[in-house]
Specification:
Strands 3, 7, 8, 11, 12, 19 and 20 form a seven-stranded mixed sheet that branches. This protein has a six-stranded parallel sheet with strand order 15-14-13-16-17-18, with helices on both faces. It folds into two domains: 179 residues, Medium-chain alcohol dehydrogenases, catalytic domain (Quinone Oxidoreductase, Chain A, domain 1, Alpha-Beta Complex), CATH 3.90.180.10; 137 residues, NAD(P)-binding Rossmann-like Domain (Rossmann fold). Helix 4 packs across helix 5. The chain starts with a strand and ends with a strand. The longest helix has 13 residues. By secondary structure, the protein is of the alpha/beta class. It is globular, with a radius of gyration of 20 Å.
Length: 342
């Protein structure tokens, strides 16, 4: 099969590689659509993310959908030809985290496109039967590939115990911030504020339901959000940028007794004023990928509760995958989500 293989930073080539072999509880998927994630771009540019280093050829990609091409001898839930959405983290199923339902914390997880595990920028990929979800007829394969980033937003809403009674500020209006906005709206939130330093991203947020948007490059977001909330602040902050300044500002935007959901990954350790957390009785909740939110995310899209289609701004055939990455890096044509069509 053909696959886009990253050899080192900036060196991705389409090559012939072996089709994955499947076990009795696995399925082989003919990949149809794959979204480019910020982590894919980071590996492409830097050849590493933290302790995960591309030290041998690696296939990236984890936001994916496709069709079942082959099933293992013990597979019963899906059949050949069925369209499916792939949850890209394969866990052990035996540890205390897996058994308690927090399988995203499994220490033995294998995650698409994270060294040394190959991902979905290939004609075929394998997955355990438990990691594929049949796609409702009302959904497209592109929408199926958007379930992975939406699941991050849904996990943020779940971890933050967000409900219709809450006001929410989302710091960062990239793809994950946008999906967090859609997720909190699906939970009934009526008062949403979103910040970024890029105007076109804020335009997307405004068009898709944010009550107000704030450009952090031109305005003091703490003062602005306090002004918008009668000097109260918000019940929940979803920090989706990873920027040190935004992480610190979240402590001043949230109400006393409020919740901060940290989704964005900072590039370095950040000094944190613990006294504010104690004095204001704040809850700080980390989000690491997702657990048990794929079914809800799929239902939200298939029923029309969440519309992910407006966020797919660019489409590239597989043969032009490096051009697609460069488009994302250079922000050519104001990209939000770039989809690779296999």
């Amino acid at each position: 099969m053909k696959a886009a293989v990253l050899h080192k930073a900036g060196d991705m080539r389409i090559e012939e590689v072996d089709v994955p072999q499947i076990g009795p509880y696995d399925v082989l998927i003919k990949i149809r659509c794959v979204g480019i994630c910020g982590s894919d771009v980071h590996y492409y540019l830097e050849g590493r993310i933290g302790s995960f280093i591309v030290d041998k050829p690696l296939i990236l990609g984890h936001e994916s959908s496709g069709e079942i091409a082959e099933v293992g001898s013990n597979v019963t839930r899906v059949k050949v030809g069925q369209k499916v959405i792939i949850e890209p983290g394969f866990t052990c199923g035996r540890c205390s985290y897996c058994r308690s339902g927090r399988y995203n914390l499994c220490k033995d997880v294998l995650f698409y496109g994270t060294p040394p595990v190959h991902g979905a920028f290939a004609e075929y990929a394998y997955a355990p039967e438990t990691n594929v979800y049949p796609m409702p007829d009302s959904m497209s394969l592109e929408e199926g590939a958007m379930i992975e980033p939406l699941a991050v937003g849904m996990m943020a809403a779940k971890r933050g115990r967000i409900s219709v009674h809450d006001s929410v500020a989302i710091l960062g209006a990239g793809p994950i911030g946008q999906m967090a906005l859609q997720a909190v709206k699906a939970h009934g939130v009526l008062e949403t504020y979103i910040t970024d330093v890029v105007d076109y991203r804020l335009d997307y947020a405004k068009k898709t339901g944010a009550k107000a948007v704030v450009n952090a490059a031109r305005e003091d977001i703490v003062n602005k959000i306090l002004e918008l909330t009668d000097n109260e602040g918000v019940d929940v902050v979803v920090e989706a940028s990873g920027a040190a300044s935004a992480i610190k500002q979240s402590l001043d935007i949230v109400k006393h007794g409020g919740r901060i959901v940290q989704v964005g990954w900072p590039m370095a350790d950040i000094p944190f004023p613990v006294s504010k957390i104690i004095g204001n009785e704040l809850e700080i909740l980390g989000v690491h990928r997702y657990a048990n939110v794929y079914p809800t995310s799929i239902k939200a899209v298939s029923t029309g509760k969440v519309d992910v289609k407006p966020f797919i701004t660019h489409r590239f055939p597989f043969e032009k995958i490096t051009e697609a990455f460069e488009t994302q890096i250079k922000k050519t044509g104001n990209p939000m989500k770039i989809m690779i069509k296999m």
